[in-house]
Amino acid sequence: MNDVLVGVDPQELSVPALVWAADEAAHRRVRLRLVTVAPPLRYGAFTRRSTLLIRAQSALATAEDLVRELHSGLWTATEFLDGPPVAVLRDRTADAALAVLGSRRLGRVAEVLGEASVAIPLAARAHCPVVVVRDPERPAVHPPLVVVGVDGGPGCRAAVGFAVAEAALREARLRAVWVWPGPFPYRDDTEEDLLERRRALSEAVAGWAERYPEVPVEQQVVRGRPVEELSRVSYAALAVVVGRGSHGGRLGSTVHGLLHRAACPVVAVPPAEE
């Protein structure tokens, strides 16, 4: 239950995703599991199957060499599996603490309907939190910052818990952001409305400071659209963490929007009961 799983795409190896996953496994002192999945091929496609196998083995070997260069003592394992990639990876997330994927920057239609679509459907259905790492890498910001979006929903507590633990692992600050959506302009807002949301935000992060006293926690209530506001703070962040919600196997609009617009890795955290 402690492995960090990283999906290795033999068609387009994501170095930033491998770096993130290797760093995460090193921080957690757990095994890094590198997994490549071959989708089903039509009967008789033996030549294509052989080519795919060679490419997959090469990608796994390259990925393993890279992560060992980054962390020489890292415990790694590789797997080459057959089947529908999303379904196979989802099954593997039942035994993982975290799954990491690179983003191929597909368009919205391709990510929903295309054969190469993995990141969005896996983020919506995985048993564990899923990190989607987009290219290219940006220069590190010091001291590091982890951002968590808070909305008071059922998945909020799990997202905050993951975010504060991640900040502790990475020796980072934590910024909890409550985006207060509504019509613009906000002329009817009152001081009482603002105080109510600040109280709700404080309740959402209550208790974590005692469990992780080493993590500085900032709380921020902002007016605007959640995707826009969280994308804005993502430029200074190591990661943006959000609860994925429960939408019948589909991502909520905020998570989906962040996967397209955030400037840093996005972590989609399932509700605790899942």
TrEMBL record:
Matching InterPro entries: Rossmann-like_a/b/a_fold (IPR014729), UspA (IPR006016)
Domain UspA: start-end pairs: 3-134, 146-270
Similarity field: Belongs to the universal stress protein A family.
UniProt name for this protein: Universal stress protein
Organism from which the protein derives: Streptomyces catenulae
